[in-house]
Structures are given as C-alpha cells and as structure tokens.
Write a structure and sequence with these properties.
- Strands 1-2 form a two-stranded antiparallel ribbon.
- Helix 1 packs across helix 3 and helix 2 runs antiparallel to helix 3.
- The protein has three helices and two strands, in the order E-E-H-H-H.
- It is elongated.
C-alpha cells in the first residue's frame, strides 16, 4: 500500500502520483522557460520593454517626482527586468 501525502488543500496524493507529476513538470518546464526567454529577447519584446520603461518615467515625472529620481527609478526597473532574464537564462542551462 502506497503512502499518501496531504497538503494544506486536503488533497491526497500518492508517491506515485507525485512522481508522475514531477516527471511531466520536468518534461514540459524547459520548453516553457525557453519560450519565456525568447519572448524577452525578441525585437518586439525589446520595444515593449523600452515603452514600459519610458511610460514609467513619464508617469513618475507627471506625478511630481524630480527628473533625476524618475530616471533612477526607471533605470532600476529596467535593470530588474535584465536581472530577471539573466536568472531565467541561467536556470535553462
């Protein structure tokens, strides 16, 4: 008899079911990560990121923040996106 594991949702899973779930996840996750990275590195994504950073800067200035603060915050936002892409890229390897 297989041992069942309970989670906080009161859904019981056997060790075999958990193993099958992990197998499917391991099979599908690399392709998902690849597609996410491709969406970040495409020319369209670059354009959207540029628009996003520009919109953030514009909104911050319109809200009354000094330009130097808005530039810093928009730059930090852009670098956080870059850092996220680096993390995702390193998990793919």
């Amino acid at each position: 008899m297989e041992k069942e594991y309970n989670n906080h949702y009161n859904y019981n899973m056997s060790a075999k079911e958990i193993a099958e779930l992990l197998d499917v996840t391991a099979e599908k996750l690399p392709l998902l990560i690849t597609r996410v990275l491709e969406s970040f590195y495409s020319p369209e994504a670059g354009s959207k990121i540029g628009q996003s950073v520009g919109s953030l800067y514009k909104e911050l200035v319109q809200a009354g923040l000094p330009q130097d603060v808005a530039v810093k915050m928009a730059g930090d936002y852009m670098f956080s996106l870059r850092d996220f892409m680096k993390i995702m890229d390193s998990t793919e390897q």
